[in-house]
Amino acid sequence: MPSSLADHAFISNSRGAALVDRSGCIDWLCLPQFDSAACFAALLGTEEHGCWSLAPAGGPRQPESLHSEQRYRQDTLVVDCDMETSAGRVRVSDCMPIDPDCAEVVRVVRGLTGRVPMRMLFRPRFGYGAQVPRIQARGGAWVATAGETAVALDASVPLHVEGSDIIADFEIGAGDCVTFAMTLADGCPPPDPPLDPQAALDSCERWWRDWMNRCEYDGPWRGAVSRSLLTLKGLIYDPTGGIIAAPTTSLPEIVGGVRNWDYRYCWLRDAAFTLLALLGNGYRDEAEKWRDWLVDAVRRDPFTMHVLYRIDCGIEVPERELDWLPGYRGSRPVRVGNAANEQFQLDTRGEVMDVLHIGRQNGLHLADDAWDLQVALLEELERRWREADHGIWEMRGNTAHFVHSKVLAWVAFDRGVCAARDRCSAERAEHWSRICGDIREDVMRHGFDGERGIFVQRYGAGDLDASLLLLPLVGFVAADSPEAIATVDAIRADLTVDGGLLRRYRNDIGLDGLPGHEGAFLPCSFWLVDNLALSGRVDQARKLFEHLLTLCNHVGLMTEEWDTARGEMLGNIPQALSHVGLLNSARILSDIERRSRKPPQAARPERRAGQDGATGTRRARRTVERHQHTPSLSEDST
């Protein structure tokens, strides 16, 4: 059985990615791209589905007497794992060098004390564990080949082959160093001059620290913020700027369940949150490249907008099941590809328009044809905003008129009004402003429960949904308005599972078309932090935020969900949207707390949020405008 999700660190070269557990085993690796078929897939099966173990001798998962401590080197994605046995202590350091002409994975072993017998087991299994390669010697290295896929392994100690595995048995004493380097070998010659793994590791460490030095965040929780930024950078596909949701597939939303999805793609929905997180911490280049990737993907066919795209802007992600893999802790099926890409999700138009608006606000250069793209998007949306859709949570049951979807349609036209005014297109601004008013009226008539004073999940039903927490964050309502506060409180009462953590929605109503249930959804819990902070309940927001930080694993990574019953991680790891939520909540809280430390301009009693009617609403809107994706135009566009 694979080690638990929490036992893993993440390494990346901004093209492919791997997970390495604290026993020294790489049990997930996709190369040359994030969405390539894994050559190590033990995480979703057994060691027979591919792994690379490097640890004191005693078997792939190590003797029970082994004590290990895994950590990142400060401000890097270089991982050190100190392992101690009765014979002594060693350190295994892992990284994926950034240089595209260098090795894909480098592993360096150093002896710290004593003299420790070691074993290296290199067991590639291509095609997600389905293809056993043949092993041949080539140019001083061993090459594993299956079909058109090949990887080479080189080492500073002798290697031998046992069947389809490459083995090294050696001893390492204090001060000794042994190196291993894995490269792609698909017709590629070996590096010239030969690779120096230690130099590659040192260079990788410097590269990450240089990148981290650009961070402009100066508030509390610096460690968590830095780790989240590094994780986000590791999920960016450097050749295009696309950002994947996670580097893994089919890690379950509940152990033993069927809610297992492939997240190695770029979701439009996450774009605005991600752009805000990057810009808010000083990473303008990455933000602009991400925005450019999104524009390039969408403008290829703006009338058939997809939910998610490949890192190269492609749209073909057919979903299939890998029946030879038993799944993480028996959670089947294991899926690759994602059928959600064929759904109609109304809200994606709002996310794209929001990103373009954020870019304009922050002076990001935008090609001239972006205006034509926006016009095309809004013309299509004008025809379709009244349709039912599958919603933000990609329901696999029936479609519905989800309130979040309608509000994001409002966002699209609201941002369109801004764009039209920037281009002095008064006629379009007036027309889109009228549509904003129509959508708002529709939402308030069908998606607002007047008796309870709250927004609901979908038209014609009284259910709650954590996506409603986004309404204040996109400017549809003020965060301290009575409607927003009442909705937040109703969501907390209905969807809280433990310690303030939220479910996305209730699974017992059968709307999503899937059996079983799921854990608490961490991005929603960060949205709750934002709502509490922006509505004046800063102490509650900070308490929840600091509780969320305790759900990071030992190296600061977060998954998508949390099993409150078992107290363990659920879902794909690391999850970009969870780390983006952490970054944005940290920025909101630190900005609010920084302002609260400034001396007041006038000695007058402070009113509670929402207590002083229209004045309080305007003040809340100004507060939200400093922290939400973009300013709301609701007052003058409707």
Quickly list its features.
single chain, 638 residues, alpha+beta, Beta-galactosidase, Chain A, domain 5, Glycosyltransferase, 2 domains, 16 helices, 21% strand, globular, disordered C terminus
Topology:
Layout: E1 8-12, E2 17-21, E3 25-30, E4 38-40, E5 51-56, E6 67-72, E7 79-85, E8 88-95, E9 105-123, H1 126-129, E10 134-138, E11 141-146, E12 149-155, E13 160-162, E14 165-173, E15 177-184, H2 197-212, H3 222-234, E16 236-237, E17 242-243, E18 266-267, H4 271-279, H5 284-299, E19 308-309, E20 320-321, E21 335-336, H6 348-361, H7 370-384, H8 403-422, H9 426-446, E22 448-449, E23 454-455, H10 470-473, H11 482-495, E24 496-498, E25 501-502, E26 520-521, H12 522-534, H13 538-549, E27 561-563, E28 568-570, H14 576-596, H15 613-627, H16 634-637
Antiparallel strand pairs: 1-2, 2-3, 3-4, 3-5, 5-9, 6-7, 7-8, 8-9, 9-14, 9-15, 10-11, 11-12, 12-15, 13-14, 16-17, 18-19, 20-21, 22-23, 24-25, 26-27, 27-28
Helix pairs in contact: 3-14, 4-5, 4-6, 4-14, 5-6, 6-8, 7-8, 8-9, 12-13, 12-14, 13-14
